[in-house]
Design brief:
34% strand, 285 residues, alpha+beta, 10 strands
Length: 285
């Protein structure tokens, strides 16, 4: 079978050096919609090099995401058709505030392989550390359609009980028509997000926004709205990708405060609040 779970889990980790500068951080922030209004002091924290704060979700693109999901799909024991691959979820754990410039070692491995029946679920873990110690751990949950059914462990359910009551905050964030074109400059050049013909072949009416762009837009909204704009308060951030976003749409971001964390749900306003991000938690200090 294309996925040999035992072989994938036993494979030696792959390590690579990554680095980033203020320019890459600024470009990422612009790619998730920072800088509006351009002279707002709260936005200048994301766009002006002399006072730059790094939103923790930058970790998903730092060093162009090396070793990256594509690298993980070529690990021993993994031989799959990329057309069957879906990014199902993302979890990021922050060990220290991210520096505006850095050089680090990223070590990637397959941390888990689950049998979901009609699909396999791979957990690709990337651990990043610099000379001063661990910086972040990034888990990407990848569904491979048609590769389940071998009788393996189904793994834990990612579904959470819905938040109770009305949200504490609701904000709306417009997605620019060129948002995906700008965001892809941070390293994800999948033509699904830029080429109309490719998008149609994939079953979409037009190019869709990167899921990790929505992920970043949402974290920025939570930090700016409920965490006093303090990026260093974020401890972890997890979500399940529940639907697509088309550039030009409006995201409705609902937030529920909890002890040490914020529950979040994101939907596409123009499509009758179609779910976009679900089972989303930002843990903070």
């Amino acid at each position: 079978m294309p996925i040999d779970a035992a072989k994938a889990l036993a494979a030696a980790p792959r390590s690579g050096e990554i680095s980033w500068t203020r320019k890459e951080v600024q470009l990422y922030h612009l790619g998730i919609g920072a800088g509006i209004p351009a002279t707002d002091p709260d936005e200048l924290r994301y766009t002006l090099e002399s006072r730059l704060h790094v939103l923790p979700s930058f970790a998903t693109v730092a060093g162009a995401g090396s070793p990256g999901v594509i690298s993980g799909l070529s690990m021993p024991g993994i031989d799959v058709d990329l057309a069957r691959v879906l990014h199902g979820g993302q979890r990021l754990e922050i060990h220290r505030p991210l520096p505006a410039e850095g050089r680090a070692t990223a070590t990637g491995r397959i941390a888990a392989v689950y049998d979901k029946g009609k699909a396999a679920l791979l957990v690709m873990r990337t651990e990043v550390a610099d000379a001063d110690g661990p910086l972040w751990t990034n888990d990407a949950q990848i569904f491979v359609r048609g590769e389940g059914g071998w009788g393996g462990d189904r793994g834990p359910s990612a579904r959470l009980e819905p938040p109770v009551g009305e949200p504490d905050k609701v904000v709306e964030r417009g997605v620019r028509e060129d948002q995906a074109l700008l965001y892809r400059l941070s390293g994800d050049y999948n033509p699904l997000h830029a080429d109309p013909e490719f998008a149609k072949l994939a079953g979409f009416e037009r190019p869709i926004l990167h899921g990790l762009c929505t992920y970043g837009i949402t974290l920025k909204a939570v930090v700016d709205t409920l965490l006093d704009g303090d990026v260093t308060r974020v401890r972890s951030y997890a979500t399940r990708f529940a639907g697509v976003v088309y550039p030009g749409e409006t995201l409705r971001i609902r937030m529920w405060r909890g002890e040490g964390g914020v529950r979040v749900a994101v939907s596409a306003l123009e499509r009758d609040d179609a779910p976009v991000l679900a089972d989303t938690i930002v843990e903070h200090s």
